[in-house]
Specification:
Layout lengths: L2 H7 L21 H18 L12 H13 L13 E3 L7 E13 L5 E11 L3 E3 L1 H12 L2 E2 L1 H13 L4 E10 H4 L10 E6 L6 H11 L1
Parallel strand pairs: 2-5
Antiparallel strand pairs: 1-4, 2-3, 3-6, 6-7
Helix pairs in contact: 2-3, 4-5
């Protein structure tokens, strides 16, 4: 098989293809200024919807929403919040698959800005180093906390872990509230996406991972 044939069967990922679309200079503005501006815009949106913001229950909602967006829901947009994977020597020479199951995923659909909720399953095989387990959770959370599509989220998690570990598998099983709460309103369906690298592209290794998470 020549290189061209190999690329047709397993095309290389272009790094730009799975980056979240961001404006240049997106983080030149500090978070407090963003909160103030979003507060003003949400105050206008809620007023247009007909809500009386003088009501005690509603008067602070614009600022609450703004703080939630900047500090929580979309904090994964800011590269300053990106986790730094901690690697350790594999002194015990563990060579088998490590699987961390059921990592909580809470994201928001970038099409309707409603929640995507589910679980991520992440696995790797050591190439001489091992990673701190909590870093896998933090990587999942970092890329989840931004407007997303599930396919991109899955690839971003895999590619981030691949920067330090060669053999990586990621599966996400999630519910999309843009499907369950609007439109077709199908509350029972979930979406599964996967990304594999290194040894996980081998059928036997891939099937072992799928058996563990299934």
């Amino acid at each position: 098989m020549n290189n061209k044939q190999a690329e047709l069967i397993s095309p290389k990922i272009n790094l730009a293809d799975f980056e979240t679309p961001l404006l240049s200079g997106a983080f030149e503005m500090d978070d407090q200024t963003k909160i103030e501006l979003i507060t003003n815009h949400f105050r206008e949106i809620l007023t247009i919807l007909g809500l009386d913001l003088k009501d005690d229950s509603l008067k602070d909602s614009p600022k609450r929403i703004a703080k939630m967006y900047v500090n929580e829901f979309f904090s994964g947009l800011n590269p300053a919040n990106k986790p730094d994977p901690t690697l350790f020597e594999n002194s015990y020479q563990y060579q088998e698959m490590l699987v961390e199951k059921n990592i909580a995923v809470f994201s928001n659909c970038e099409h309707h800005f409603v929640p995507i909720t589910g679980k991520a399953h992440v696995a790797y095989i050591s190439n001489g180093k091992v990673i701190g387990l909590s870093k896998l959770n933090r990587i999942v959370q970092y890329y989840s906390r931004r407007p997303q599509v599930q396919e991109r989220l899955t690839i971003q998690i895999c590619e981030e872990i691949k920067k330090v570990l060669e053999h990586v598998a990621v599966m996400i099983d999630a519910y999309h509230h843009c499907v369950s709460a609007r439109g077709i309103r199908d509350a029972g369906s979930s979406t599964i996406t996967t990304a594999f690298s290194g040894k996980f592209k081998d059928t036997e290794t891939k099937n072992e991972f799928l058996k563990y998470v299934g």
